[in-house]
Structures are given as C-alpha cells and as structure tokens.
Specification:
Blueprint lengths: L1 H20 L1 H14 L7 H9 L6 H35 L10
Helix pairs in contact: 2-3
Amino acid sequence: MAHYRAAESKREQFRRYLEKAGVLDSLTNVLVALYEETDKPNNALEFIRLHLSTGEPDSGDVETLCLELTELQQKYDALLEENRDLKNRLLQYEPPVEDGAAE
C-alpha cells in the first residue's frame, strides 16, 4: 500500500509541475480548438503540433529555407542580367527615335 501512495504522490507532483508550467492550459486550449473545428483535420496530431508550436521554426526548416532563398536569389540575379542583355540587344535592332518623326 505504501508503494501505491508513493506513486500517487509522484503523479500528483508531476501534475502540479505541468499545471505550474502552463502545459495543462496549453493542451486544453488546443484540444478545445480541435473539438470546435467544424471540418476536422485529417491529421489531428499535425493540428495539435501546429497549434502547440512556440513559433520557433525547426532548424532543418530554417536551413532548407535559407538554401532555397539563396538559389532563388541567384536565379533572380541571372534573370535580371539576361533581361539587361536582351534589352541591349533589342536597342541595337530598333531604329533610332527622331524628334520630328512622331508629328
């Protein structure tokens, strides 16, 4: 019987710890939000994970996004350079605009 009381005491300490840290409130809020969803998500665990996130992205996500940003910046710079080159080539073939020709 003493073993049962010790386990109950540890369980109660852990519950107080979770309550003090705000974990119970956060979990309750997320579960209430999931319950109140009219269109239940296909992946409830993903819903909970997204709504429990602290706002800090995964380091893997950040690294992936940084690589993608670098690649897109290089592609953007290359397209700008190509655009400048094409404009310059176009100017070579266009006849010069004369002031009196438009009248």
